[in-house]
Design goal:
Length: about 280
């Protein structure tokens, strides 16, 4: 069994009917008989019949081999970025040394105070956690989409509500950024806190500079006692520079992005995040 899920993408304002190739499963009794290749080859050959312009997938290592054999092309690597919040949690191996332990705990405490009491200021922006999406949200999305040169998925309020707000798998939260005056959005970020880790699933910022939103997310991570912040995006994506400037590190965790059909995916202008891995 394999799955093919519809996903609307926009390539330079042109609607692209894309399909996300999901995981596939073969009954253990029938493995080794070529069924995995046959399933993926059928998907690769027949997808135009179902109205799709292209397919993409972010598969695990085993699935990637079958998809490449079926004809799927390499389109990029989704790289994980990480910012530690609780240094003592990640440096536990060297915490046994008293001087190092004292220095780490002091530095950790200074950072915590810096963010919790608001020394890190974002003087020209205000932030709001949204539990409902209204007209200003869709106005922002339509304006952003009209000016975006590249590939990006649907971010209409209808899709965001269906994908995240009504998602039974977890409590997703959305923070919006606005100027101090007016009601127009500058951007938003979607995240979830689970097992003391803050994981970012999606983000859009008007100027593709995520540093303001990241400052607010870092404040939230400190206030809610998270151990670290995690975010995955394409290696050459516009937001990568802002992540590095915000104190994120590149980890060794990477997953491949595969595609077939048009358009060509230029990773420097392609907004694909961990939230795009499935519907």
């Amino acid at each position: 069994m394999t799955s093919l899920m519809p996903r609307n993408l926009y390539s330079n304002q042109r609607l692209i009917k894309a399909g996300i190739v999901g995981d596939f499963m073969i009954n253990i009794r029938y493995r080794g008989m070529g069924l995995a290749h046959e399933l993926q080859n059928t998907v690769f050959t027949d997808y135009p019949k179902y109205g799709f312009d292209m397919l993409y997938t972010i598969p695990n290592e085993n699935a990637a081999r079958a998809l490449r054999r079926a004809g799927f092309e390499y389109a990029g690597m989704l790289r994980e970025y990480f910012k530690p919040i609780k240094l003592s949690y990640y440096l536990s191996k060297i915490m046994k040394y008293p001087l190092i332990r004292t220095a780490i705990l002091l530095f950790e405490r200074l950072l915590e105070v810096k963010y919790k009491i608001g020394i890190v200021s974002i003087s020209d922006s205000c932030f709001e956690e949204l539990t409902r999406l209204d007209e200003p949200f869709d106005i922002f999305w339509k304006e952003y989409r009209a000016n975006f040169q590249g590939i990006i998925g649907d971010h209409s309020s209808e899709f965001i509500k269906w994908k995240f707000f009504n998602n039974p798998e977890g409590h997703f939260r959305l923070i919006s950024e606005k100027p101090l005056e007016g009601n127009k959005l500058n951007g938003f970020i979607i995240f979830k806190i689970q097992h003391n880790k803050l994981v970012i699933y999606d983000m859009i910022e008007k100027n593709n500079d995520c540093r303001k939103l990241m400052k607010r997310i870092i404040q939230i991570a400190y206030n809610e006692n998270c151990s670290g912040i995690y975010f995955s995006t394409l290696k050459d994506a516009p937001l990568a520079k802002g992540l590095i400037a915000s104190g994120f590190f590149k980890t060794k965790n990477e997953v491949i992005l595969l595609k077939t059909g048009s358009p060509i995916m230029n990773t420097e202008r392609c907004f694909i995040f961990s939230g795009d891995r499935n519907l």
